[in-house]
Write a structure and sequence with these properties.
By secondary structure, this protein is an alpha+beta fold. The chain has ten helices and five strands, in the order αααααααββαβαββα. Strand 3 (164-170), helix 9 and strand 4 (199-206) form a beta-alpha-beta unit. The model has no long low-confidence stretch (mean pLDDT 89). GO terms for molecular function: metal ion binding; metallopeptidase activity.
């Protein structure tokens, strides 16, 4: 007789959270189903309606509560979980000995910038061992443009005695493809950093569930 498939909670304990599908993770969060709809079926229906976990996490209260089986309590819990994740990433950045993994910086920028409806330009100021000194959202723009001043970025880096910086901004449209203005800005910041011996590590553009790294793009072109 074939073994019955593991329920999500049992699977998590046996194989770890990373082994779970999106629907299984959501089923654990929802805990129970509703009449005529077991919890796994409910979770799959929720994901089908919102398109993804990201779609669910960014839904407003009205859209969330329209779906049968979801209500204000689940919305509050889910938003609290989302905020806990953002704070975990922030604390991870602060506590890590050095930001040697670009994935960590990308995940942090995504959690901070991805859902903004206008452009936000953010900087991580690092010491000479790539440890975080300060993080700062420096410039805010309209829905498609932020006025960024490289001189102000360098002044802030000198103020914090930073040896290196990583910068990022979001594209509210969701498309993380860099524009000509983005490329020009990247060159200007890099040149300004060179003048004062500050390492310019990367400029990351955050889209909807995606990102663009100028450093990764440069390395790929060199291969």
């Amino acid at each position: 007789m074939a073994n019955s498939p593991l329920m999500p909670r049992e699977k998590l304990l046996k194989e770890g959270a990373a082994a779970l599908t999106d629907a299984e993770l959501l089923a654990i969060f929802l805990r129970t189903g509703i009449k005529d709809l077991p919890v796994m079926a409910l979770a799959e229906n929720v994901l089908l309606t919102f398109g993804s976990l990201r779609g669910l996490l960014t839904a407003d209260l009205e859209a969330f509560c329209k779906l049968r089986g979801l209500g204000q309590t689940q919305y509050i819990q889910l938003q609290a979980s989302k905020e806990m994740t953002k704070r975990y990433l922030s604390q991870q950045m602060e506590m890590t000995e050095a930001i040697t993994s670009p994935e960590l910086a990308v995940m942090y920028f995504q959690s901070e910038l991805e859902d903004n409806e206008r452009e936000v330009f953010m900087v991580l100021f690092l010491d000479n061992q790539n440890r975080l000194i300060k993080k700062e959202k420096m410039f805010y723009g309209t829905i498609n443009q932020a006025s960024v001043h490289p001189r102000e970025v360098v002044k802030a880096a000198l103020r914090y005695n930073a040896a290196a910086i990583i910068v990022a901004h979001n594209h509210p449209s969701g498309n993380c493809t860099p524009s000509g203005a983005d490329r020009f800005l990247t060159r200007k910041i890099e040149m300004a950093c060179d003048l004062v011996d500050i390492r310019f590590i990367d400029h990351i553009i955050v889209g909807k569930g995606d990102y663009f790294s100028f450093e990764e793009d440069k390395l790929e072109q060199e291969i």
